[in-house]
Amino acid sequence: MNKDTDLIMQILYLVLLCIILVSMRGFNHRGFQEKLLYIPYEVKHHHAYYRIVSHIFIHQDWAHLLFNLFTLYFLGEHLEMLLKMTYGEIIGGAHWLILFFGGGVFATLYSYYKHQDNSNYRSLGASGAVSSIVFAMIICNPQMELMIMFFPFPIKAYIFGPLYLLFEYYGHKKGRSGIAHDAHIGGALFGVMYIFLINFEQGVAFFKQFI
Asked: Are 210 and 158 in contact (CB under 8 A)?
């Protein structure tokens, strides 16, 4: 492993470590957690722009945190490897970081539009960022097999992707679940768009799965 690889791996694992430590502190100090929540009202009316990113580092509980970390562990490293193989260590690692943080930020746009004047709306978690990573991986490797929670059989990624989006859209329209389905969809869309941006041919190849 060369020095560039060491540097990128250290950055990626540092991000994950920060998410774990910040989330754990938030579990025991709700006041601390409140300061980092994504609150569109605070962003608009009090210019608390840091909340657009800070919410990625906190989670509601251990189940919320571990689900995101579990997904990142299995798909995030695989995507990182593919990006580095294609673009090199530094550029590939940079693409991974852009997908993660860009997905997390993009995932806030709809809720900002809808809730910017609602002082009671709050959201938290890295789910939008994780969705970006997942869908980028789906575009890059549509034939890999993935599992849907509570569904015991693996299915191809190019089938998993649309089914996931339909599920999230249904959850969003139904509402009252306490889950930011719109953030999951927003993160997923960012992941797809970013892969199209950096590798249009790869994006086209994905959609050929349906022809």
From this structure: yes
**Which two structure tokens, joined as six digits, stand for 17?**
């470590």
Model confidence at 206, pLDDT cuts 50, 70, 90, reads confident
Alpha carbon of residue 123 to chain centroid? 14
Closest CA to 120 of 41, 58, 32: 41
**112 alpha carbon, distance to own chain's centre:** 17
- In terms of residue numbers, what domain contains 68? 3-210
- CA-to-CA distance for 116 and 67, rounded, in angstroms? 28
What's the one-letter identity of residue 117? D
Overall number of domains in the chain = 1
pLDDT in tens, 117-142: 999 999 999 999 999 999 999 999 99
DSSP run (H or E) holding 156:
strand 155-156
The CATH number of the domain holding residue 143 is 1.20.1540.10
The candidate with the shortest Cα–Cα distance to 205, out of 195, 130, 146, is: 195
DSSP state of 123: B
C-beta neighbour count of 74 within 10 angstroms: 12
**In a 3-state reduction of DSSP, which class is residue 148?**
coil
Amino acid at site 40 = P
